[in-house]
What we know:
The structure holds 2 protein chains of 2 kinds. Chain A is 53% helix and 16% strand. Chain A contains 13 helices and 16 strands. Chain A has helices at 2-14, 16-48, 64-72, 84-92, 119-123, 150-156, 204-210, 228-233, 254-262, 274-317, 319-327, 332-373, 384-415; strands spanning 56-60, 82-83, 96-108, 111-116, 125-126, 130-131, 134-137, 145-148, 163-164, 183-189, 199-203, 214-215, 218-219, 240-241, 243-248, 269-272. Chain B is α/β, with parallel strands linked by helices. In chain B, strand 4 and strand 5 form a beta hairpin. Chain B is built from 10 helices and 9 strands. The two termini of chain B are 27 Å apart.
Amino acid sequence: MSELLRLAFAxxxxxxxxxxxxxxxxxxxxxxxxxVQKVRTEARExxxxxxxxxxxxxxxxxxxxxxxxxSVFRVGDATANVSYSxxxxxxRHPDVAWAIPISLGDSHRGFRVMGTSEAYFEHYRFGRKRxxxxxxxxxFHDLYDAVVGADVAAALNYRVGDEIVIAHxxxxxxxxxHDDKPFTIVGVLARTGTPVDRTVxxxxxxxxxxxxxxxxxxxxxxxxxxxxxxxxxxDLTPKTITAFLVGMESKATVFMMQRALNEYRQEPLLAIxxxxxxQQLWELVGVADRALMxxxxxxxxxGLLGMLTAILTSLNERRREMAILRSVGARxxxxxxxxxxxxxxxxLLGVLVGTALTYGGLAALQPWLEHRFGVFMEIGALGGYDLxxxxxxxxxxxxxGAVPAWRAYRNSLADGLxxxx
Amino acid sequence: MTAGPVAPGVPTAxxxxxEGVTYAWVRGRTVLDIPRFTVARGERVFLKGxxxxxxxxxxxxxxxxLRPAAGRVxxxxxxxxxLSGAKRDAFRAAHVGFVFQMFNLVPYLSVLENVVLPARFxxxxxxxxxxxxxxxxxxxxxLGLGTDLVARGVTQLSIGQQQRVAAARALxxxxxxxxxxxxxxxxxxxxxxxxxxxxxxxxASAGTTLLFVSHDVSLSGLFDRSVALAEINRAAATPAGxxxxxxxxx
Lengths: 421, 250
């Protein structure tokens, strides 16, 4: 066997030009497959890491996915609000460690504005229980203070001290602006790779203040308006909020609290466990990445079929070589094994080069991916699944190699020692 | 890489013994019909036959690659008919060396690697060769090839040099039988005789039987015996004798 392996290697080396092309074709397809697999895993992890540490998300009764999408991903809108008194009752409950109110509905140049409390900076967690950190500045304190996410700051070139105006509604271009009550940026959050990066944070009271003189989507006529300074004196306790996040003192009480909220009589509420809802959402989104994986697998198959073509075309000119080997004592079985080994070697080299390409590409693209998309691609050892994929590629290579090997076997039986030129 | 124990030859039996052998590539068109053909141990026989006379078929039978339609092929006393395909391959690898007309060498191996190839497939040949590389160098030198050629790629050699390498390979591990199929037809006249003499000297010292097949009768004087294929082959008179060369590649 080792002698045949040496022969197979020498034979490939003799045809190293075409062999290198074949190896390269396989390598590129393998790199694609590994890359897709890597992105898939990272995307899944990053998706699951959007929110952590939160035990329940509570909103008006709609669907769990809808609630998850607007409260965490800032996608879509709430159909109804939750009264502030419910939030206060839950926040005061002895089993509840913390609660973060969320009030959505306004925007700033395409970025969503979220009214919340200082508890947000203290208790909100993402990734592996990571806390929000400030790239510059501090949490909002004054009524007209705002804290922007990293993407907002980068896209609009904002710094601490800049003044911004919030637009009414969530359209990209809005004509109704709260320009009588401008905000000052007091903090810029560090990048999280989650929707937090694309959010402008203000206090709940600020959301109340800018809407004091608003009714049914329009600002009151000039005479009835409330100035920014007058608003400070008004009662700014909100009547409703969009949703709130809850952290429990003990995990054991999560289900009890969830049931209690879902069965709350005075108001139709929905309480969801983020992990479960994220899983459901991923099952929807995951179809696309499975499709990507299947496409990548077919590209690998195409690479291996290229190898098959290359070996098959070389067979005729190698009949003489086979007859020589037969004359020095090789059996037809040796000829078969020799060709299967050649395919195996090509596939193995393809897999090795492909893996190297993947790591090289990852190392080269890592800073850009993190900067551009907030996705951190960890460069680690190959996982069991990756190794399984690579093994399957080599196995398929060996299997495909059986086709030319069988042809050569039949040839060598028919040709015997007759050397055909 | 050998297929189990190789059938040993019988030391006293003739090197080649064909009895009532017939062969047909296509049913009903007999190419070979040899009532009796014997080559004694150590004998050097010149087998004469024009191309298309069934020479390659005869060599295929003697080499155990082809099986006769009828009759008995015994090499070194071993009836090849009684061996399986794998056993016949192993027997050939252990006891028979081949040199062909041209293109004898594996292009991607060096001269030395080509010469030691038989030892890779046969434990007998390996054992008999002793120190493989030393024996290969000795044979190459005995056949008139300088030691500077040993590590070269075979494609850099002239045809005459290639044939010497092929002969060295066929003789490695002292096989009992050497079959040469037109090995000199690609060489010029002076080279033919010196090549043949060197091969014969090596055969003599190793006790190797030589079956030399050629259409070129001018060399026949150097042999113990000269046989025309037409004399031993009863099928030679019929035009069907050409079938062996004109068959299409399978």
